[in-house]
Amino acid sequence: MAWLRFPRFRRAVNVFNPKLFENLSLAAFLAWVGLGSDALSSSAYGPPEIYYALKGHEYLAVFLAIGIPISVFVISAGYRQVIALFPDGGGGYHTASTLLGPKAGLVSGAALIVDYVLTAAISVASGTEALLSTMPASWYSERILLDVAILLFLIFINLRGMKESIKILLPIFMAFILTHTILLGWGLLSHVGSVPDIAYNTVASVRQDSMQYGWIFIVALILRAFSLGGGTYTGLEAVANGVHIMREPRVQTGQRTMTLLATSLSLVAGSLIFLYLMYQVHGQQGQTLNAVLYGAITRGWTVGGIPFGPTATLLTLITEGLLLFIAANTGIITAPIVMANMAVDRWLPERFSYLSDRFVSRNGVLLIGFAAVVILLITGGHVSILVVLYSINVFITFTLTMAGLSRHWLAQRDKDPLWRGRLTVSALGFVVTASILAITIFEKFDAGGWFTLLITAIGVGLGYLIYRHYKSISKITAELDETMLDVVPEHLESGPNLPLDPRGATAVFFVSRFDGLGLHTLLTAHRMVGGFVKNYVFLLAGIVGQGEFKGIKALEDLKVYVETEANQYMAFCRNEGMAATWFATYSTDRILAMEELANVAIRYFPQSIFFAGRVIDTSAQGPFHGLLHDEVSFIVQDRLQHDGFSMMIVPVHVRGIPSKPPNIVLPISMSPDLELVQNEEVKKEEARVRAAAKAQATTQANIQESAPHAGTE
Fold first, then answer.
1. What 8-state DSSP symbol labels residue 347?
2. Which InterPro entries match (predicted)?
3. Which residues contact 230 (CB under 8 A, 6 or more apart)?
4. Cis-peptide, bond into residue 171, ω within 30° of zero
């Protein structure tokens, strides 16, 4: 996809602008809106699944209404530790990679990516169904078209930038908070007098069921309900993944966001479960459990004698449906962050670590968005199917994260005086998440859970193959570096400052660092054009990807690195008696950066000839080579040639050029006076070959002449 160019919404910004990170970063409130909507929107399907699992034993909802908030705070407490340990983001992926090992990180990352694709799909499908439930029944048949249209809209606004997408959706989020605060708060306060009766009935029912079925039955039923409502917890991971986009001080902002998210999710989910029991609601045909509850709460509401209850219920359901669209947006926001971090570690194609001029991982946004579209089309947008696929993967990451934290604090027991408390939190989180994961897999494996696990396993396998490919390429380039850097003096010192001739022919090189590829390209070009070239110019582009977009300090480090590499080229050339200089720039777009550098070189040296190197190794170039490597040199070559400038891509055969001469199949004509100038060794070898061929021809002729005489005798 390197050839695919997207229009920029504005010109590339200066990445060293000190206000850039402040303008793009999120305060705790906006982070809560952008990253917390996934968790809050789960109130549309998480708590109902929990309550349905208690059918016939609804009194246990009291324990779940208390247990859900406790488990939410336990998991969020673990992720507060993740934020403190990894303030540059990455969440569960970085936690598993660093504390448990790279392969555990691969599993965690693959599970998260699949989970976020399903987040986008199920959230859009659920939101569409919620909105269409307020419309004529004939509209329901068109839901899949509406699903796809909404996903395309979300992709578009995320390509414009994360902060812009959050601001667009902010009014919906606030409307959800307002309507649900009023509705749920009124429902609890208006029936607070029934709490003693509920407590009495709960105690009596527990005593009766324990005598009839035993305590194991009660505990198993509670755990099963917990697991079936596992979707309630999704979204807690998003804050730790996106902490690097938050305003300084990041740790405090991230932890404050996590507190806001845990508090709001606990209040909404816990209140809903308790209100189901308080109002004794049951599912009705054509209505969700929440819709039945909202109708029961608003029954009898009037304004000036006019019934207002149905309108209040309708507004609440609309905000609930629209919030699900924001949750889909959260998946589209957060998954590319995980993919970018995995691309930095070489588990995914490196193009996923690149940022667009709007500082979003454009490739990740497109892949996640269109993958969600495909999932919707395959499943027909049926929430009942999607919810089965949805609730497993996030607990894989939760469990690995808590296991990694537990291992870390156990190893820190001699260094951190607070290790006991932190270990207790992470160990408790591991028990909770691992239990829910095991029960969910057991309950939903035959109902489609196997498919989710299969897709995740395929993702893990592909990631491992991609990593092996990049590792083989790194080995090849390391061999090239070892070979070529032998020509560089051990203590390279720049020679005298040789004057440059702007009017003379100039060899311009696109290089990334001082390595074997760059040196091979330089020396090859020097052999070709060194007789008339007066200047040697090196162009270096510092690409700001996910690994560098962490703050001004990281960008300054990138600048120091690029200039150090450039100075080594200049020192090498001057040491060899060649006049040299360099230009460098810093951007999120490699093609744009190379074009800008070429324009600068042409402005200073109009007689420029451009060169770039390309590693050639047949054994490492499989059918997916083009997907794993962005061949931007060919794009820049095409554009420079269009503008009238020459560019040569120098092949570098790291395994050596095959010695076998090529086969010639077609008849070839040539000039009769063709004369090749060859060295003495070649001439001797050709004379030997001709003599051998002549001797063989003579032998064949003698055999043919003697054959008839032999037959006569």
1. S
2. AA/rel_permease1 (IPR002293), APC_K+_Transporter (IPR053153)
3. 46, 391, 392, 394, 395, 436, 440
4. no
DSSP annotation of 354: B
Of 49, 58, 65, 111, nearest to 444 by C-alpha is 49
As given in the structure block, the two tokens for residue 227 are 């697991």
Full strand arrangement of the beta sheet holding 647-653: 580-587, 535-543, 506-511, 608-616, 647-653
Most confident option among 77-81, 157-161, 545-549, 637-641? 77-81
279 and 380 in a single domain? The answer is yes
Cβ neighbour number for residue 631 with a 10 Å cutoff:
14
The CB density around residue 672, as the number of other CB atoms within 10 Å, is 5
425 and 517 share one domain: no
Summarize pLDDT for 363-374 with one digit per residue, the tens.
Answer: 778 888 888 888
Q: Which domain holds residue 165?
A: 20-464
Indicate whether 230 pLDDT > 70.
no
Q: Which residues sit opposite 651 in a β-bridge?
A: 614
CATH number, domain at 46?
Answer: 1.20.1740.10
Q: Are 648 and 611 in contact (CB under 8 A)?
A: yes
E strands of 115-191, at which residues? none
In a domain, 708, yes or no: no
Of 45, 402, 39, residue with least CA distance to 228: 45
pLDDT band at residue 357, thresholds of 50, 70 and 90?
very low
Nearest to 655 by CA among 468, 471, 483, 465: 483
Categorize the per-residue pLDDT at 609 as very low, low, confident or very high, splitting at 50, 70 and 90: very high
Give the 3-state DSSP-derived string for 471-499, with helices as H, strands as E and coil as C: HHHHHHHHHHHHHHHHHCCCCCCCCCCCC
Whole-number Å distance between alpha carbons of 340 and 61 = 41
Instruction: Name the domain count of the chain.
Output: 2
Task: For 324-343, write each residue's pLDDT tens digit.
Answer: 887 787 778 778 888 888 88
- Which residues, 6+ apart, have CB-to-CB distance to 188 below 8 Å? 271, 274, 275, 278
